[in-house]
Amino acid sequence: MTALRVTIDTTSGLAPWRQIYDQIERMIAGGTLAAGTRLPPIRQLARDLGLASGTVARVYRELETMDLVTTARAKGTVVTEPAKRTRPEALLTAGATRFAAFAHDLGVGEDAAVDAVRAAYARVADS
């Protein structure tokens, strides 16, 4: 099992389960969490992050729905092989859809939303 480094930003306004999901999803997509990597047990990760077990259980269910992990009683929760995963394009589309809905709910126009994505992308690329 690898040490899973996730953080919760209580000031972000984003639900803790979503923050954890997004971080693990990026680690898997980026190769930081390789196929076969075992994630910590739900109770352990919940305890480490100071969250309810149900919050982490939701993250693991969502990851499993996207074919990023599989859970088996004897093995625990394990990162799947790339061939078994949802294509990166589908993940990108899902993320873009979530962001578009968020921007729409805030009442932000399309141009402002696109500008925010460009600025965020530039910050990430520079880091």
From TrEMBL:
**Which UniProt keywords are present, listed alphabetically?**
DNA-binding, Transcription, Transcription regulation
Sample GO molecular function, one term: DNA-binding transcription factor activity
Q: Identify the residues that the record assigns to the HTH gntR-type domain, covering every copy.
A: 14-82
Which SMART domains does the record cross-reference, listed alphabetically?
Answer: HTH_GNTR
What stretch or stretches form a coiled coil here?
none
Pfam family name, one: GntR
User: In its UniProt entry, what is this protein called?
Assistant: HTH gntR-type domain-containing protein
Origin organism of this chain?
Amycolatopsis japonica
